[in-house]
TrEMBL record:
Classification via InterPro entries: APOBEC/CMP_deaminase_Zn-bd, CMP_dCMP_dom, Cyt/Deoxycyt_deaminase, Cytidine_deaminase-like
Family: Belongs to the cytidine and deoxycytidylate deaminase family.
GO MF entries: cytidine deaminase activity; identical protein binding; zinc ion binding
Entry keywords, A to Z: Hydrolase, Metal-binding, Zinc
Keyword Ligase: no
UniProt domain CMP/dCMP-type deaminase: residue ranges: 4-128
A Pfam family recorded for this sequence: dCMP_cyt_deam_1
GO annotation (BP), single: pyrimidine-containing compound metabolic process
Name of the molecule in the record: Cytidine deaminase
Source organism of the structure: Micromonospora nigra
């Protein structure tokens, strides 16, 4: 899928949040998620020995707090220049179940692309076979 201007803006939103809010070992990743009508919700992860919470889930919860139950596009960016990160196994499973038509922005910053959540294998941490490597 082709990157839209709004997709690039979503990457910029997540990048801004990670630079502003992820300055300790507690918070190391930021997610930005957009609805079909353009509303954007963000979240940062919460690291803890108990397992903590991924940024994707915090963003989903932030959207739900505002009554939003459908997300169109999501991107996650790591701190300290780690660029765009793919969701973990647990998040991929949850995102597939809750938002089956979700678009995920993946890949290196110089070659970002959009992948349907259905095309990403939940178990591997990398795109499923047949999907171009990000
Ligand atoms: Zn996760």
């Amino acid at each position: 899928m082709t990157m839209r201007d709004t997709d690039r803006a979503l990457v910029q939103a997540a990048t801004a949040v990670v630079k502003l809010r992820c300055r300790s070992d507690r918070h190391t990743v930021a997610t930005a998620a957009r609805t079909a009508d353009g509303r954007v919700f963000t979240g940062v992860n919460v690291r803890h020995a108990s397992g903590g919470a991924c940024a994707e889930l915090v963003a989903v919860g932030a959207a739900a707090t505002q009554g939003v139950t459908d997300l169109e596009t999501m991107v996650t960016v790591g701190d300290r220049g780690r660029e765009v990160l793919a969701p973990c196994h647990r998040c991929r499973q949850l995102l597939r179940d809750h938002f089956p038509s979700l678009r995920l922005i993946v890949g290196p910053l110089d070659a970002l692309r959009v992948a349907p959540i259905a095309d990403l294998s939940p178990g591997t941490g990398v795109p499923a076979a047949g999907t171009p490597t990000p």
